[in-house]
Automatic annotation (TrEMBL):
Annotated Phytochrome chromophore attachment site domain residues: 197-329
UniProt EC number: 3.1.4.52
Keyword terms, alphabetized: c-di-GMP
Catalysed reactions, semicolon-separated: 3',3'-c-di-GMP + H2O = 5'-phosphoguanylyl(3'->5')guanosine + H(+)
Pfam families xrefs: EAL, GAF, GGDEF, PAS_9
Source organism, top-level taxon: Bacteria
Species name: Methylogaea oryzae
Location of the PAS domain: 352-398
SMART domains reported in the protein's UniProt record: EAL, GAF, GGDEF, PAC, PAS
Domain EAL: 651-905
InterPro entries assigned to the protein according to its UniProt record, in alphabetical order: Biofilm_reg_signaling, EAL_dom, GAF, GGDEF_dom, PAC, PAS, PAS-assoc_C, Phyto_chromo_attachment
Name of this chain's protein: cyclic-guanylate-specific phosphodiesterase
Taxonomic placement: Bacteria, Pseudomonadati, Pseudomonadota, Gammaproteobacteria, Methylococcales
């Protein structure tokens, strides 16, 4: 049948009608592939063509034939590439049909055409209003083909039929692919659920999805942030199809900032839940360059969100085709991304679980998990380490086997009541280890409940707090004990006394408080240093501890003050017995810190009831009594009496005011002349301190010097005396007044200070007084107590050039042995031996002996307290060199003394 003739006939002749009838017969009832096959067969016959085919356009780049009729028979489908002549014309949207002669086409791609290459070509686009170009309908012939309007109309009709079929087939393909992906997704989901090793499964999941999506590569990228808050992405998992180069080891894909790589658009889109589905050729140039370099032609990237946070994305790359991603595929791959997200999340959870498991095993806290009935389901290593029980020994048991027996039923009832009502109990509990040892735990019990609030498990977490308790005990001990002597301190003593008072009041008993204070301890501390003082206190504590009865409590209140609480006593007399015993024990020589100490103490006793009903009053009154004992000559005990309070207050008052006296210029020096007994010339002056209190008037040094010594105030006061006396003597001497020397009293604590010699040196240097014009008076008692030390200091002072006198000579333990060694200049006979001269035999003998001793050793001898001419004469005749006393002058203020210096002593004035 000639095509031209037929065309001419179409629509006009019977032949036309027949043609249409055969067409209708061919397509009637046919659907799907059958319809397309019938169309190509019918067209082939109608146009007497060698080959007739319908092709579907794939990815805009290929034609996949869907039905081919070649040389009188159906032929296999094939694919060929576009654009390719002559089919490229059909790709032009304006072209609705194309007819071409003498074509040389398709020969390479289509085996059907290579044997007998066609010369004529006729084609029409198959289009759809929504999707545009779907494919083409092509006819090849070695005979001449002509496209008449009628023929074109009929072919357009056939194209329209083919279009719906191609459309249907395309959707079918997309759905098949989608189903395929969804199959893979569900497979992966179940795989993930069952999987134990998430890492391996994630790789399988990625592969399976990649294969299902028929892509070349599936890549999972994870986000992170750098220090500057920049979002980075790193390739974490990857699957590649055969022949595709893996990228997982490419360092450029690790910690890559989206922004710096021109992928900031991706960051924006993906982070806002959008998908990137594109042919690479259609991407912006910067993105295109990077992806094309990797051979990627199409990419679909889907974000992964985890708990609403953008975690990263999964990319499906097609390196083979410029693929047009269908909505179905995108939907399925979104589901795939969700599966991957859940896998990753599970992996994180697993990690957390593993961490939790590790913590369970490695924590130092013991953990027990029981079922709802309280039977142990699991324990950790620390449980075994703390309790000593192995897992096998405890599984299935109720933890009550750990009970120590120290808590009653009520304790446990309250505990479980709290667990059941609050879901939690926390507290300290005593439990028993396997070896029977009872130990304290800090325990927390909590419940695990299901959705319906029913208890599933109890979890007990506990720490062995033995060490903490021990530390607490030590802290308590430290808080209540004196670290030096390990005796109870004032705090604990107060508590115990409080308790004792309460008990005694109930039982109508008496309680005694004895306060001990070491006499002159301060001097020891100042002279030998604190280590020696501390060692002495330790020895004293040891000795006292051994002396006291078990029922009594000894404490160190402060410094050198100890207290004894006597609870079991029949009467007050027993307390004095205890005080006496204590004094006796202490009077024994003590060895400490390489020294031998001869100490004494003063003890004050207060009794409840009577001397106070509370802790403070009792202790304060015992202290008052102790001061009273001191004032009465030390090494004694004294009961508290109401009058004592007044003197204690007075003492306290004086100490307080004495502290301010120096600053307020209330202290002054008076001077008493020292005269030559032969002739009466004033050779020296003794500086004697006076305290002029604005309210109390003049206070005698005999009252305040002991307080100054006890409180340490003697140091600044003594320095002031020394400087003032030196300055005054210098002034008098500079004024030409006849004064050989100025005598200054040095108290024991001053003399024992290591800096004493320096203080003297400085006083001389500051005032400019010649050293030989200064005489230091040191009491004999003091020198004899620590003779070696005294010797060394006196030598040093002597080397300064100052004069040294022994004051109150005769009152101490004079020993010829040391007296000989002492670098002194003068002996001062104590007033007490002068008082009754020349009538008292004893005093006379002593005075004579002292004078003889002093003379034999080459010392100057001076007698103090000369009040009568008789005394003076006796002493002078016995060879005493100098004298000092009211007979010559009382101690007087500076101006009066100046007058004495100028006018001489009236007692020696020539008789009129
Ligand atoms: N009954 C009587 N007493 C006489 C007579 N002649 C002098 N006295 C007193 O005897 C004391 C002599 O001083 P002391 O033995 O060193 O005894 C002094 C001395 O140990 C101490 N003292 C005074 N001034 C100082 C001082 O500046 N430093 C130190 N460390 N102690 C001082 O106070 C003690 C008492 O001093 P004062 O009250 O000034 O008493 C003085 C003086 O007033 C007398 O004929 N009859």
């Amino acid at each position: 049948m000639d095509a031209i003739n037929q065309t001419t006939l179409l629509g006009e002749t019977r032949q036309d009608v027949a043609t249409l009838e055969t067409l209708v017969a061919a397509i009637a009832g046919a659907t799907g592939r059958q319809l397309l096959d019938n169309i190509v067969r019918w067209t082939s016959e109608w146009l007497d063509a060698d080959v007739c085919m319908i092709g579907a356009l794939e990815d805009g780049a290929y034609v996949d034939t869907v039905s081919v009729f070649s040389n009188g028979a159906p032929a296999p489908n094939f694919r060929y590439q576009l654009p390719h002549p002559p089919c490229r014309h059909i790709m032009n949207p304006d072209e609705c049909a194309h007819c071409e002669r003498n074509v040389e086409c398709l020969s390479q791609n289509n085996p059907l055409l290579t044997d007998t290459p066609p010369t004529d070509y006729l084609a029409l686009p198959i289009t759809d209003q929504q999707s545009g170009l779907l494919g083409l309908f092509a006819v090849f012939s070695q005979r001449k083909l002509h496209l008449s309007p009628q023929r074109q109309k009929l072919l357009e009709l056939l194209c329209a039929m083919a279009a719906s079929e191609i459309e249907r087939r395309s959707v079918e393909t997309q759905l098949r692919r989608r189903d395929c992906i969804l199959d893979a997704v569900s497979f992966c989901a179940s795989l993930l659920l069952r999987a134990e090793q998430m890492d391996q499964v994630i790789n399988t999941v990625v592969e399976r999805l990649g294969r299902a999506a028929e892509v070349s590569r599936t890549s999972v990228f994870e986000n992170s942030e750098d220090d500057a808050g920049e979002t980075l992405c790193s390739l974490r998992y990857e699957w590649v199809a055969e022949g595709i180069r893996p990228q997982i080891d490419d360092p450029r894909l690790q910690n890559t900032p989206y922004r710096h790589n021109g992928f900031n658009r991706w960051q924006e889109l993906l982070s806002s839940h959008q998908v990137i589905a594109s042919k690479v050729s259609e991407l912006p140039p910067e993105e295109r360059a990077i992806l094309a370099q990797e051979g990627i032609k199409s990419t679909l990237s889907v974000p992964i969100f985890m708990e609403d946070a953008w975690w990263g994305f999964v990319s499906f790359d097609d390196c083979a085709h410029e693929r047009q991603w269908s909505v179905h595929e995108v939907g399925a791959l979104l589901a795939a991304a969700a599966v991957i997200a859940s896998a990753i999340q599970r992996r994180h959870g697993e990690k957390r679980q593993r961490q939790a498991a590790t913590m369970f095993e490695n924590t130092i806290q013991g953990i027990v998990i029981t079922d709802k009935n309280g039977n142990i389901e699991a324990i950790n290593q620390a449980f075994s380490e703390i309790t000593g029980y192995s897992e096998a020994e405890v599984l299935g048991q109720n933890p009550r086997f750990l009970s120590s027996g120290r808590h009653g039923k009520e304790f446990y009832a309250e505990l479980w009541q709290s667990v059941l009502s609050n879901g939690r109990w926390r507290g300290e509990i005593w439990n028993r280890r396997k070896n029977g040892e009872i130990y304290p735990e800090l325990l927390t019990i909590s419940t695990v409940k299901d959705q319906d609030n029913a208890i599933l498990n109890y979890i007990a977490v506990f720490s062995d707090i033995s060490e903490i308790k021990e530390a607490q005990r030590q802290l308590d001990y430290l808080a209540n004990h004196d670290p030096l002597t390990e005796l109870p301190n004032r705090r604990l003593f107060n508590e115990l006394l409080d308790h004792a008072i309460a008990c005694a009041q109930q039982e109508k008993r008496i309680v005694g408080v004895l306060v001990f204070d070491l006499d002159r301890f301060k001097q020891i501390n100042d002279s030998l240093g604190h280590p020696a003082g501390d060692a002495l206190l330790q020895e004293v504590a040891k000795r006292l501890r051994h002396t006291i009865r078990r029922s009594d409590t000894l404490a160190r209140l402060v410094g050198d003050q100890f207290a004894l609480l006597v609870e079991e006593t029949e009467d007050a007399q027993q307390l004095s017995k205890i005080a006496r015993q204590t004094l006796e024990v202490l009077s024994e020589p003590l060895q400490a810190h390489g020294h031998e100490f001869y100490i004494t103490a003063s003890v004050g006793i207060a009794i409840c009831p009577g001397d106070g009903d509370d802790v403070q009053t009792l202790i304060r009154n015992a202290e008052s009594a102790m001061y009273q004992a001191k004032e009465q000559g030390r090494n004694a005990y004294h009961y508290y009496s109401a009058e004592l309070t007044a003197s204690s207050f007075e003492r306290l008052f004086m100490e307080t005011h004495l502290r301010q006296a120096l600053g307020k210029n209330e202290l002054v020096l008076h001077y008493q002349p020292q005269v030559m007994l032969n002739g009466g010339a004033i050779v020296g002056a003794e500086a004697l301190i006076r305290w002029q209190h604005p309210e109390l008037g003049s206070i005698s040094p005999g009252k305040f010097i002991p307080i100054a010594e006890e409180s340490g105030l003697i140091i600044p006061i003594g320095e002031w005396v020394l400087r003032t006396a030196c300055r005054q003597a210098k002034a008098w001497r500079d004024a030409g007044l006849p004064l050989h020397s100025i005598s200054v009293n040095i108290a024991g604590p001053q003399f024992e200070r290591a800096e004493f010699v320096d203080t003297v040196r400085q006083a001389l240097a500051e005032t400019g007084l010649e050293p030989e014009a200064l005489e230091l008076e040191i009491t004999e008692t003091f020198i004899s107590r620590r003779i070696d030390h005294a010797l060394a200091v006196l030598e040093e002072l002597r080397s300064l050039g100052v004069k040294l006198a022994i004051d109150d000579f005769g009152t101490g333990y004079s020993s010829m042995m040391y007296l000989k060694r002492l670098p002194i200049d003068k002996l001062k006979i104590d007033r007490s031996f002068v008082n009754d001269l020349p009538h008292d035999e004893n005093d006379t003998a002593i005075a004579k002996a002292i004078i003889a001793l002093g003379k034999s050793l080459g010392f100057t001898v001076i007698a103090e307290g000369i009040e009568t001419l008789e005394q003076q004469e006796f002493l002078r005749l016995e060879g005493c060199d100098q004298g000092q006393g009211f007979l010559h002058s009382r101690p007087v203020p500076t101006p009066q003394f100046e007058a004495l210096l100028v006018n001489g002593i009236p007692a020696f004035a020539p008789k009129p």
